[in-house]
Queue: 4 jobs
Job 1
Amino acid sequence: MMGDFMQHLDQDKRQWLEERGDDITEMAERGFEMAKREHPGQSDRDLANKAVRDLQRKTYGVGDEGTKHSW
């Protein structure tokens, strides 16, 4: 199933996950599966990339620009 999730990602999101390993990738994939159930009409590509962005923000405090948030 992970291959299905990864094929929907933009290159920068895929690379970010590959650099962090399987645990983070599994977390993102679970977020993707939840988003698919919550937003059935939205494209898999949008949902997969959103799942990674959400995980980046929650886990690492990274914004869309790749910079740290100033808390």
Job 2
Amino acid sequence: MIFFLTLYDLSPSLSIMSIMHCSHLSGMNLTGDIPLGLTKLSALTEIWLDANSLQGSIPDFSSCSSLKIIHLENNQLTGELPSYLSKLPNLQELYVQNNMLSGKIPKGLLSKNLPSNFSGNKIKGVDNGKSRSNITLWASVGAALLLIATLISCILIHKRKKSYSDRGKFNDLLPPKRLVTLSNATTDAAHCFMVNEILEATQQFRKKIGSGGFGVVYYVQIM
């Protein structure tokens, strides 16, 4: 019964105005405008008027400097979001979704970055169905995914560098290739001759012995 008195019968002379801290009236099937008497509760810290059928504009709660939580969602409120909302020093939550509000969100509210929801209205710059808390959540998820992708890239690059390094070490373990010439040829090694050595040994291909299935045969003198 105290709450109904608060809504409809409060006057500045009632002492309850100076001691009432919370107005919990969610889902009470209330109709009409938000009572101006609530704006005179100087000690008010929380307003819960969501899930009713309240109409009209949001009244001036600028004198309620202790306000921390405002829930006015799921009503039929009209008009613009009051600019004083951005100046409430202790405001921590603001939910006004699913009304018929219009205009723009006060710049000061956006800079506060507090949990809020303005969807389901005709407010400019607001995507219906998305609250600032959801946007913050998706931003955090995106940052986490970016960090994971960066770590995976670093791991792959490190593995690739290690593979190249191991390949170089393996090549270092292989015996060096040796070019066998007339001067260092041995009986147990494959003979590889330089062109100038072949020309010298055949005397510029002067002494032809004959020809066969493997081509022309020349006389070679190895010193």
Job 3
Amino acid sequence: MKVGRKSTGLALATGAALVLSACGGEGDAAPSTESAAAPTELRGAPASESAAAASQPPAHPTTEDPEHYAVDDGGYMFTLPDGGICSIDGALNDEVGSDFACLLTLDEPMTSEDDEPTTGLEYRDNMFTPSAALADPQLQKKFSDSDAEALGPQSELTVGDYQITVETEDEYGFGGKAGGDFFVAIQHVTRFWTPRPDWVPEPNFPPIS
């Protein structure tokens, strides 16, 4: 069983939170080791097992049945509650250079490793990092113009090794944080890096009222 599952929480100004989890592939270990590294809601099974356990998940999110659905093949794009857009294993991911990328809605951009302003986020080197590729306006437009589906409240999505769970801010706790966690509040980003790259500044954002 792979360990090194990484997760990120995106708590948005709408009061919703998005938990993203990726299987890091850092080796084999007992299930208890993997369980300790994941948020409570995602503990106990890797993404493939979670998808198999779901009974007849619909192919796409719906307001009538938002509980659980899975994508068996191909890429998938979905929107965050504040209008941000994420893509997993799709054609746009090839252009980004990461199989998990999001174009976020932020008041202030992040700074990429190339020292460029960006509102993009990508999963790279076993953690989520500000995306230099998504600093490109043309690629941003491709994300914005894409046909992405909205995740309804309490929806769960499984795409390959990734799991996404939409929760309210009150329901989500940052227990057992792993490397590459993200937290977005009031359209500002703070990062829980383990370890934090030298080029990523210490977080500085308004307090949550």
Job 4
Amino acid sequence: MRRGGRYDVAVRQTKRSDEVVMTDDKWDLEIFSRLSVRDVDAVLSLGWPAFVVYRDLVFLAEAFSEAYADRAIAEYGEQLAEATVNLTYVDTIMLMSAEDSLEAWEDLARLLSEMWLAKAAREFPARAFEVAWQWYSTERDGAATNYFDLGISIFQKGNRLD
């Protein structure tokens, strides 16, 4: 078995037990071996978030406070408040390194979108959700200076933030 590197873990069913076999190049065990349970929990909570229902709107628990939700509802109305409060800038949570391509970040946004939709559908089967993500620019003096703010938001269908 190689030390470090990437592995794909396959489980083979045998008569006496399950045999775990390391193959291919999927999981980076060198990185995983340095993670604590707290680290893993933090990463998983980004992909499988907790939700809070407030005034019949569904908010990401990490982004939610009654004061913030009330302010957003007063300023944008209920329809846009959900998407506004849930807007999360992924690149403020995780560091973008020079070796990360924009395509890799977009792949991450697509994956998070699928995971958030699956979690919302599981918790709220009677409601329909959408996830939107896009690059946001920073403006100074009316001119866009960069497009490195990757924002992602989940909201009930019809509560879209454009």
